[in-house]
Amino acid sequence: MQPESRTGPVKWTLSLKVIPLVSLIVILKFLAHNFRLEFLTLSPLFTAIISANIFLVGFLITGVLSDYKESEKLPGDLACGLETMLDDGLMLLRNGSGTVASAYIAHIKNVSSSILLWLHKEERTSGVMRALSDFNTHYLAMSGLVQPNFIVRLKQEQHQLRRMITRIHTIRETSFGQAGYAIVEIITVILCLGMVFVRIDPFYESVFFVSFVSFIIIYMLLLIKDLDNPFGYYEADALSEEVSLKPLADFHGRLETILAEINCGREEGKI
User: Fold this and answer.
1) pTM of the full structure
2) Whether 98 contacts 90, CB under 8 Å
């Protein structure tokens, strides 16, 4: 059984995570005002720090979005590759090679399950690669039943699956611009503390600007970190922006139905 993806009001998950942090900053602002600790004055240098932070945030989000847009395609591409291999197995089954075809289709199901488990980090990458390599045993069994071009095409699909698994592994394990994250986090902390101690009259305007600016900056920083790993289904603190596994889950469901029909046909003597 494959793991279930998280569900819930994902649209507001990130906002709900940011609100307590912004509330803390606003409370500190009230305390600083009441105890007359607002010793900073609003100046062009302060607005320059905000502009620098926004520039760095834009730089980071541009970098992570390129990987994220590529990642959106990968589960669907994996599902299409497995579906193509399944079609070839069904053709072989209809051609009268019931035992070989059934074993091959069952192995496709094992690979599909292994990939879904791996995406939730319940399977190691080496295990998935081993399952893909095990297709070779089935290709050897088919070699005397089909034309060589048939095996060559299946090997190409096997190669594409390996490439996609390797690409997902690289995206998942590599974080974009750690030094960039560090400077943005430092500037964000300094900026939020600065807004607590800066004096803006009237006071209610300062509360509005402090809450608004801190919400936007913290929200964008957490969003970038979430986008940086679009395959973070296994992370307890992952927020909302994982790519959808629905194509793979739908394929896995169809494959289980097909295998059930094959087993039923074997019991009835039709295969």
Assistant:
1) 0.81
2) no
